[in-house]
Amino acid sequence: MITPEQVREKLSTVKYPGFSRDIVSFGLIKDIRINGVDVVVQMSLSTNDPKVPQSIKDDSESAIASLRGVGSVTVRIDIQAPAQPAVAGGGGGAGAVQIEGIKHVIAVASGKGGVGKSTVSANLAVALEQSGARVGLCDCDLYGPSMALMFGSNERPMADPETNRIAPVERYNIRLMSMGFLIEDTSPAILRGPMVTKYTQQFLRWVDWGDLDYLILDLPPGTGDIQLTIVQTVALAGAIIVTTPQEVALIDARKASTMFQKVNVPVLGLVENMSYFLCPSDGKRYDIFGQGGGEREAARLKVPLLGQIPIDIATREAGDRGMPVTAADPASGVARAFHDIARQIRETSPA
């Protein structure tokens, strides 16, 4: 005898396209009916991409068909158009709404770790502030927070007892929130899915960001629970994808870009970090991780290549001592590259 529990268990192995989360936890299953050996599953889905429901239908039917003794399998999907986000030009899931007081929320993402996404986030925030914008930076990497170190602060955010809202830490006129302000350097953040969602929501909704032109979200690498929570609940003006030139990084950059496209978040462009190395002794250029990968990938994705940031000793040293290089040396070549990226962002999403 086939049971609904067995069917649901099989469906829990089917991933939502572009995400690591399965369709059961995503809440798509509305009804499971069994008539002898025949199975009928009813789902509900909000999307504008016709490939998503077809993929889910095919994968679900294959998963259920693998049950021993099953007869016919029918998966019906009720497709609804996603609600429009609350920010003009923004994107996200059906529940995505604007954060009060913030004009543009921009996610900085990567498909894999180690490409310098946090360095890009920190210096982009500083460059936007130096251009005259009001800027906040939310470190959404709960497991590997780095903004407390990169901005040289060990302050503890304080909560207003009357409003219960958290006052962000301020450095270089940028309002900051990070798990790094809440735990010790040696203390791991041991969190499961529901707690990850809770902390992410609190950082975005319960921090008193005030009036900002831009809130930069430094996302963790990959396409997991944190990314899903953000695109489902926050109206994003767009996303910036960070990669390095070599193919192994570009493969994962494509996955990150595809994730945002599937949830109707515009990709504002690609940043190629660690693009090359200029030898300080003779000025010779070395393409350590290859050449032209970011440019080719941006053309393939049909998005701008916003900038190419070189490997730079001063950039690493500045970040380690708690002062992003764009703040430490605004006239440096790396800082100028970040100012150019900030200029393009301001043209795309004017304050």
Break the fold down into its secondary structure elements and pairings:
Layout lengths: L3 H8 L17 E7 L2 E9 L4 H15 L7 E8 L21 E8 L7 H14 L4 E5 L7 H4 L7 E2 L6 E2 L1 E3 L2 E5 L14 H13 L6 E7 L6 H9 L4 E6 L3 H16 L4 E6 L4 E2 L6 E2 L6 H9 L3 E4 L4 H8 L4 H4 L4 H16 L3
Parallel strand pairs: 2-3, 4-10, 4-11, 5-9, 5-10, 11-12, 12-15
Antiparallel strand pairs: 1-2, 6-7, 8-9, 13-14
Q: What is the number of helical segments per DSSP (H or I, 4+ residues)?
A: 11
Beta-strand content bin: 15-25%
Got a strand count?
15
Helix percent band: 25-40%
The CATH topology name of the largest domain reads Rossmann fold
Looking at CATH, the homologous superfamily of the largest domain is: P-loop containing nucleotide triphosphate hydrolases
Distance between the termini: 61 Å
**Largest pleated sheet:** 8 strands, mixed
User: How many structural domains in the coordinates?
Assistant: 2
Strand order of the largest sheet: 8-9-5-10-4-11-12-15
CATH C-level class of the largest domain is Alpha Beta
By helix and strand content, what is the structural category? Answer: alpha/beta
Q: Give the mean pLDDT.
A: 85
Coarse morphology: globular
- The Rg value, from CA coordinates, equals 22 Å
CATH architecture of the largest domain: 3-Layer(aba) Sandwich
Unreliable stretches (pLDDT < 50, length at least 5) are 83-89
Your description of this structure?
The protein folds into 2 domains: 4-80, Fe-S cluster assembly (FSCA) (GMP Synthetase, Chain A, domain 3); 102-348, Rossmann fold (3-Layer(aba) Sandwich), CATH 3.40.50. α3 crosses α11, α5 (193-205) crosses α6 (225-233) and α7 (247-262) runs parallel beside α8 (293-301). The chain has helices at residues 4-11, 51-65, 117-130, 147-150, 193-205, 225-233, 247-262, 293-301, 313-320, 325-328, 333-348, and strands at 29-35, 38-46, 73-80, 102-109, 135-139, 158-159, 166-167, 169-171, 174-178, 212-218, 238-243, 267-272, 277-278, 285-286, 305-308. The longest helix is centred in the C-terminal third of the chain and has 16 residues, at 247-262. It has 351 residues and is α/β, with parallel strands linked by helices. α7 links the parallel β11 (238-243) and β12. It has an 8-stranded mixed beta sheet with strand order 8-9-5-10-4-11-12-15, sandwiched between helices. Strands 1-2-3 form a 3-stranded mixed beta sheet, covered by helices on one side. The chain has a two-stranded antiparallel sheet with strand order 6-7.
